[in-house]
Design brief:
This protein has 176 residues and is an alpha/beta fold. It contains eight helices and six strands; from the N terminus they run ββαααβαβααββαα. Strand 5 and strand 6 form a beta hairpin.
């Protein structure tokens, strides 16, 4: 990416947040974009939502975040005010995301939330209706689920159970 200037996000970012984890992982988690903590540290999912994602990976799935997964976002720079990335911003980053995912070539990609799911499927995804369903992205299996930030905002037993159930489906594929 170098010093990417392909969209207006470059004007307000501190760092490009490319991804972290095992580049040979069988499991990739893909979110929407870096937040303030991620922009400051240059790593994805290190704030509150990141701690929730780590809990899902390590306590819910019994995997090691650093060894067993790779984590990235559809856009590599922080949208101001943590707003959803705009279509032009997603379009500027999507070629890098596709190359990133193809280079890792995981067994499973988990799209965290509506923006990630919509970007990977190329259509608007009603995440509350489609979470927990399998899809295909560039020949890789794709599971849609809620974003950890959504769980923090709507921390109900039903939502936590839904994500747990989704991750059990992912584990079934990884163990097969």
């Amino acid at each position: 990416l170098g010093d990417c200037q392909r969209c207006k996000l470059c004007e307000t970012r501190q760092t490009i947040v490319f991804g972290s984890g095992n580049p040979n992982a069988d499991l990739v988690f893909d979110g929407e974009g870096p937040g303030a903590d991620e922009d400051a540290q240059g790593l994805p999912f290190v704030g509150r939502a990141g701690r929730k994602l780590t809990e899902i990976i390590e306590k819910g799935m019994l995997l090691d975040r650093k060894k067993d997964t790779y984590i990235c976002n559809i856009v590599k720079c922080r949208p101001p005010g943590n707003r959803d990335p705009g279509r032009d911003e997603v379009d500027a980053c999507k070629p890098f995301l596709i190359k990133q995912l193809k280079a890792i070539n995981p067994q499973v990609i988990v799209a965290l939330g509506k923006p990630a799911a919509s970007t990977l499927l190329g259509r608007t995804v009603p995440i509350t209706k489609e979470r927990g369903t399998w899809h295909e992205f560039e020949g890789m299996r794709l599971m849609l689920t809620y974003h950890p930030a959504y769980l923090l905002r709507a921390y109900t037993k039903e939502n936590r159970q839904a994500v747990y159930d989704d991750m059990q489906k992912v584990l079934e594929i990884l163990k097969a």
